[in-house]
Amino acid sequence: MTTTPTILIVPGLRDHVAEHWQTLLEQKLREKLIEARSVQPLEHDKLSRDARVAALDQALAEIDGPVILVAHSAGVMITVHWAQQHKRPIMGALLAAPADLESPFPPGYPTIDALRDNGWLPIPRNPLPFPSIVAASTNDPLGSLERVTGFAHAWGSHVVNIGDVGHLNPAAGFGEWVKAEEFVRELAG
């Protein structure tokens, strides 16, 4: 008997946004009676990598059975940092539009110095201990295709070029992202 995996959403630094594809995916999966939940937003230390990794670890501790992670933006980096420190088996991970925290961001985002001071740098480049798909945008203002592809190769991830989708968020015109469900099904095997 195969156990259906729990889908755990790992949002980025902006946490939960009502119109975001991750939020909509969680709702859609629940409507289909698929166990889906999100890492809870932080009340304090919102820029702390350690606090974000601990929140992911806590969410995983509350799940029995197989898990597929669905991470976006800095949520990808939370997942990658978590994987360097913890050994819990993960069935697979969808890593969508990873934010290149080592490169300067547009105004309104954390600076490289703030990210370094809060433990985000350097970005780990060790192979992940689970299968993963990196969904890479060709015009993401928070991570060039070249850099994201380099991260994916270092992590041992399968790279999928998803085209000109910006940062794959509401600001880029994305609410629902239908491909996410397809990638999750692929990871569930």
TrEMBL record:
Domain of life, per lineage: Bacteria
Gene Ontology terms, MF aspect: hydrolase activity
InterPro entries according to UniProt: AB_hydrolase_fold (IPR029058), RBBP9/YdeN (IPR010662)
Keyword Ribosomal protein on entry: no
Pfam family, one: Ser_hydrolase
Record's keyword terms, sorted: Hydrolase
Matching SUPFAM superfamilies: alpha/beta-Hydrolases
Keyword Hydrolase in annotation: yes
Name by which UniProt lists this protein: Alpha/beta hydrolase
Species of the source: Aromatoleum toluolicum
Lineage of source species: Bacteria, Pseudomonadati, Pseudomonadota, Betaproteobacteria, Rhodocyclales
